[in-house]
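Researcher: I'd like a structural prediction for the single chain below. Treat it as a standalone chain; there are no partners to consider.
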Amino acid sequence: MMSNIPSISIAGRRIAADEPPYIIAELSANHNGKLDTAMKIIEQAKKAGADAVKLQTYTADTITLNSDAEEFQIHGGLWNGKTLYQLYQEAHMPWGWHKPLFEHASKLGITIFSSPFDNTAVDLLEDLNAPAYKIASFEAVDLPLIKYVASTGKPMIISTGMADAEEIQEAIDAAQEGGCKELAILHCVSGYPAPAEDYNLRTVPDMIKRFGLVTGLSDHTLDNTTAITSVALGASIIEKHFTLDRNGGGPDDSFSLEPIEMAQLCAGAKTAWLALGRVDYGRKSSEQGNMKFRRSLYIVKDMKAGDVITADSVRSVRPGFGLPPKYLDMVIGRCASRDAIAGTPLTWEFVG
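Model: Treating it as a single chain, here is the predicted structure.
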């Protein structure tokens, strides 16, 4: 275990740079209005190897206003033509589903928590004993909400999409002032989907250094490359939207991972973390058997005792049973101490 590194713990799972990445499957709106679909998404997340499933807890009335004024209308993108109220009315998860989903996740042995979007959502989730809370990127500027969530004393994860460094620090300060003792932040680009080139993943190690917190990635790209790459740069948490069918027609389906892709993410992120290892110039266990195939010095002409060793009589070749090639200049010009046939490894015993 690395010393003096930030960590948090969710439902007994330690999350830190010296642990495998914590993978969150974001269910979001991918239930598409069916409780059974939400149940199946949780099942598939568990099967794929995710550590947690995350919900979103809001209603259209708790997140926006029922208005068709221009500023409440969506133009362009996946949700073109809808008002905010229409989008969230379609996308929200009925609050009555939360308890059966929490119970289902518990039976399956996968952690479940949520992003609350107002204080009443926090109260609902507290009644369900949610083990942690996520603050969505769009709510990262809602400092009163952050403080209310922090007052629960539960671990918090804050997504930082659209937030500049000053706003990120304000969100962190609000969480810590509110009583949060275990806090993580996620680098995020709030585009749906977001192009990989927008992610600027070199920001991840800078965030780790700048803010001194467990840091991860909320990834809205269409494949796993960005997420897995972030692990090599220090990301300890990966969050990806997850669906049963990308062509399911729901608000978030089109930029979500399907089950086989989630399984690939879980495996790939862990492999990337294992590959990081530690600073080690020593010979690895998988190399030991190949040592004999390195180059070494071999006699390539039949020689008699007393013959002068020349550049024509010795070569650097594979395998590695002779002297290392670095000694070639030292043996040229010396005399053979005994007879040897071509194909004999050159050793110090042969050099007079």
